[in-house]
Amino acid sequence: MADQSIDREAVATDCPRAPLNKRWTVKLSVIMIIVFGFGAYGYYDAAIAYPARGVRYAEWAKWQYLEQAKLANAEEPGVFRYQSSVTNPGEELTRLRDPSSQSSRPLRASMMASRLVWLEALKVVGHLTEEHTVFESPQEELSRLEADWQTSSVPKPLHAFDLIVQWLIMGVCWAIALVMAIHMLRVRAKKYSWVADSMTLTIPGGQSITPEDLEEVDKRKWDKFIVFLKIKPDHATLAGQEIAVDTYQHQFVEDWILAMEEQAFGSQEDQDEQHEHDHADDEDSTTTES
Q: Residue 264, SS3?
């Protein structure tokens, strides 16, 4: 905000309500849309893409399990046909997680290890039910899976943490977008108005300020578009207060404040000249004293 030139047309025209700054509005809207988009992408992954990948991985794990079950049949005849289906899959998963449940038979142990991987995969996607673990013909199911996976690549395993992260991304991004939308509505609700003849600025809350009410215009945060209006002690409602004004959010407000400052304290050129004059006087005084 180095350029402090005043828009004379904005200063000379009464304005019942300062409009939002289009640049600020567009900037905030673009950021809000981008953040919302990231949230939508997180929702898509959490609700659609990742679960679909998890289901495919569970299918692959079932294929591996049935392959191991068929191999175990050579070690224990009938195990493939009669023990491939899993009833009460939740209880079976709990049992398989216990290291003491491991079989001493190598092929059966491999079969149970593959069953554990399969049931874990089903649990992640919410398919740990008999509907997905019981089948009438293990051989037909194995043949179907072989035909499918002979030409398909193995999907990446899905973990519960993957879904949690995506839901968090969605929640955080949409929360930020909501906060930004509420902030925009609140800024929109703030009313700055201007009466040109008397140079009266009405701020949110309904109080009015004229150049005669200004004790100081503090620009310590001018680079951040913030200006502080120090009000004289004799003001009817704002006596002695320091009013922070964001000059970037609303159009014309910066011009009105600069015009009020010029009316109250002179132009920037006058202030610079006065500062140089005072500085020269100080130097003269120092020289005289020496």
A: helix
Mean pLDDT of 178-198: 96
* Local structure of residue 207 (DSSP, 8 states): -
Close Cβ partners of 61 (under 8 Å, ≥ 6 residues apart): 114, 117, 118, 121
In which band, very low, low, confident or very high, does the pLDDT at 210 lie, cut at 50, 70 and 90?
very high
DSSP lists the bridge partners of residue 212 as: none
Q: Is 1 helix (H, G, I), strand (E, B) or coil?
A: coil
User: Residue 205 and residue 281: Cα distance in Å, rounded?
Assistant: 44
Tell me how many degrees the CA angle 150-156-162 measures, rounded to the nearest 5. Answer: 155
Query: Are β-strands 200-202 and 193-195 bridged in parallel, bridged antiparallel, or unpaired?
Result: antiparallel
Sign of the CA dihedral running 218, 219, 221, 225: positive
At 256, the pLDDT band (50, 70, 90 cuts) reads very high
Cα distances from 105 to residues 67, 84, 98, 115, 117, in angstroms, run 16, 16, 17, 15, 18
Quick one: pLDDT band at residue 11, thresholds 50, 70, 90? very high
pLDDT (0 to 100) of residue 285:
55
DSSP per-residue string spanning 71-113: HHHHHSTTHHHHHSS-SSHHHHHHHHHSGGG--SSHHHHHHHH
Which residue, 223, 220, 219, is CA-closest to 1? 223
* Contact call for residues 196 and 12 (beta carbons, < 8 A): yes
Between CA 289 and CA 220 the distance in angstroms is 34
- What predicted TM-score, i.e. pTM, was given to this entire model? 0.78
Average pLDDT over the chain, rounded to whole?
Answer: 91
C-beta neighbour count of 166 within 10 angstroms = 19
